[in-house]
Amino acid sequence: MIDPDTQAPWVASVDEDDDDDMPLSTRLSIADGLTLGNAICGFMAVYFTTTGVLVPHLMGNTDGGMTRHSAATAVLLMLMASVFDLFDGLVARKLRSSAMGAELDNLSDLISFGLAPAYFVVVWGLISDDAYGKVSAVAAVVVLLAVVLRLARFSCTTVREGIFQGMPSPFGAMTVISVVLLELPFIPTVLAIVGVAWLMVSRVEYPKPRGRLATITLAWIVLSMGCLVCWAFAVPGGDVLLQTGAALQICAAAVIPLFATTRRVNTIRNNRREARTAQLP
Q1: CB < 8 Å & 24+ apart, contacts of 140-145
Q2: Exposed/middle/buried for 89, CB within 10 Å: 0-12, 13-18, 19+?
Q3: For residue 59, what pLDDT is reported?
Q4: Which pLDDT score, from 0 to 100, does residue 15 have?
Q5: What is the sign of the dihedral through the CA atoms of 76, 236, 220 and 144?
Q6: Where is this region: Disordered (predicted)?
Q7: 71 domain-assigned
């Protein structure tokens, strides 16, 4: 095009600060990078569950070594996803968090703590017995829907500072995996999985992992990883370590709701007692 005033070719001006004018919502922060690491771990957990556990079973490969290593790798990746999930929140509070942070966190949690454990349950059912495949698929759908509902409710409701309403999805996912790895009979395992799903959508209050609790949570995850590695490489006592860790995880999942419910009941009773005392002349 020709500029009518100067008869010279017209060139659109380029603002050197265009990059600086990028909308804040499209910029990724360090916390967002950790959140994306969470999503990658969840996807890779599905990959190892498929290629190392399901495919060998469908092909009739009876060598359990690859299956054990792949199952342990899938669970390790879900544990690593929970580490990323733990630190992205801590980093977001310390440093800048992008406008996409909350949405990225929910989407990543859905992959790592919804899809990955649900898929693990489906594969477990198919390997256990073909007759149990449909039942395990129903249990897996229940887990997935529980995580979806929990994440949706988390996005649109406000609760007291420092607590979660319902079992956090990372804790729920690890509890579901622990139930499977404990190798209980099929029916009790399915009932326990459905029970964990119910806890995720319940109104039971769970403390957020901050400060000392965050340190304890990280230490527990590292310890769980160690148990999985021992089990994967058939270290003497590895099976016992794995089952002990899984049992402790399930016990924690059962005790925390009981403790929270007891504390809430005591609080209500104390409030009523104080109200009666205040009404006395």
Answers
A1: 142/193, 142/194, 142/197, 143/114, 143/117, 143/118, 143/172, 143/176, 143/193, 143/196, 143/197, 144/114, 144/115, 144/118, 145/197
A2: buried
A3: 84
A4: 47
A5: positive
A6: 1-20
A7: yes
**DSSP code per residue over 196-229:** HHHHHHS--EEE---THHHHHHHHHHHHHHHHHH
Residue 13 lies in a domain: no
**What residue numbers bound the domain in which 266 lies?**
28-275
pLDDT value of position 138: 94
Element (H, E) at 116: helix 116-128
| Residue ranges for the chain with pLDDT beneath 70 | 1-26, 62-66, 130-131, 159, 280-281
Q: Which residues contact 86 (CB under 8 A, 6 or more apart)?
A: 170, 209, 214, 217, 218, 221
- Kindly report the number of other CB atoms within 10 A of residue 79's CB atom: 22
Secondary structure of residue 60 in the 3-state scheme: coil
Contact between 86 and 160 under an 8 Å Cβ cutoff? The reply is no
For the full predicted model, state whether its pTM sits above 0.85.
no
Quote the number of domains for the chain.
1
With respect to residue 10, please indicate whether it lies within any of the assigned structural domains.
no
Q: At 194, which CATH number?
A: 1.20.120
β-bridge mates for residue 25, sequence order: none
Distance separating alpha carbons of residues 229 and 124, to the nearest angstrom = 20
3-state SS, residue 145: helix
108: three-class secondary structure by DSSP: helix
The count of C-alpha atoms lying within 13 angstroms of the C-alpha of 259, restricted to the half-sphere facing its C-beta, is 8
- pLDDT score recorded for residue 195: 93
Give the separation between CA 42 and CA 113, rounded to whole angstroms: 7
